């Protein structure tokens, strides 16, 4: 692992992407910063993080031999790595909210952004951005249902120790991926999927509300929801949200 620590940067993922364009990178090159001024989340959302309080980290990963239509397993691997860190820190009721938000009960504690490099229908490398709320206890009013390790446990956490633990967990899950243990990753992910098998109110892209039950993940990585008429419908990331 090559670790690059920065005091401040616009985005660790953007920084790492530029590095990868300029020269070959060592597997598990990690960039972390005390302050991220333009963090990015899913669907062009921003990621807000208080300086020196949280983990804002991006990891360059290669050598796992995955085709484009298998990319959901990479998402499973990274999400489960973060989930297991929370489990070991005894964070209550951790789950993974599809596709890869990490929750404690009904509050978000971590966001993940995965950006793949593709050639000849294969993912030959990826940059994984992770924002994990650790010692921050106050959040903007615009952020609803957000929490941190310190808010939950009432103690300060060592950022460096958690970073090293996180990277080791990622390495372990990527090893499962490289060994093509796809069923193991999917079973573990489904066991901790937020709201799975629970009647839930959803909102579609037209802001129409409907009841459904999350039943699983499709082959393409979309969310499978059983509707009230007992049919199962597949939704992409921009097509559905929890109401």
TrEMBL record:
Keyword field contains Ligase: yes
Top-level taxonomic group: Bacteria
GO cellular component annotations of the record: cytoplasm
InterPro entries registered for this protein in UniProt: aa-tRNA-synth_II/BPL/LPL, Biotin_CoA_COase_ligase, BPL_LPL_catalytic
Pfam families: BPL_LplA_LipB
A GO molecular-function descriptor: biotin--[biotin carboxyl-carrier protein] ligase activity
Domain BPL/LPL catalytic, chain residue ranges per copy: 1-178
Keyword tags: Ligase
Organism name: Polaribacter vadi
Keyword Ribonucleoprotein attributed: no
Name of the featured protein: Biotin--[acetyl-CoA-carboxylase] synthetase
């Amino acid at each position: 692992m090559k670790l690059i620590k920065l005091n401040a940067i616009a985005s660790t993922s953007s920084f790492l992407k530029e590095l990868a364009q300029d020269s070959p990178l060592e597997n598990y090159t990690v960039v972390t910063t005390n302050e991220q001024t333009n963090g990015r989340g899913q669907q062009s959302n921003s990621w807000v993080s208080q300086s020196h309080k949280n983990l804002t980290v991006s990891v360059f990963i290669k050598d796992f031999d995955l085709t484009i239509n298998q990319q959901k397993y990479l998402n499973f691997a990274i999400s489960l790595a973060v989930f297991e860190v929370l489990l070991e820190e005894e964070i209550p009721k951790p789950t993974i909210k599809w596709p890869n938000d990490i929750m404690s009960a009904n509050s978000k504690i971590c966001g993940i952004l995965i950006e793949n490099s593709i050639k000849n229908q294969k993912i030959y490398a990826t940059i994984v951005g992770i924002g994990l709320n650790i010692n921050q206890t106050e959040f903007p009013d615009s952020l609803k249902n957000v929490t941190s390790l310190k808010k939950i446990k009432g103690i300060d956490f060592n950022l460096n120790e958690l970073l090293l633990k996180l990277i080791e967990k990622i390495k372990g899950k990527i090893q499962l991926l490289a060994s093509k243990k796809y069923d193991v990753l999917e079973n573990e992910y489904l066991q901790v999927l937020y709201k799975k098998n629970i009647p839930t109110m959803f909102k579609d892209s037209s802001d129409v509300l409907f009841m459904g039950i999350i039943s699983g993940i499709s082959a393409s990585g979309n969310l499978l929801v059983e509707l009230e008429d007992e049919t199962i419908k597949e939704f992409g990331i921009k097509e559905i949200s929890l109401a």
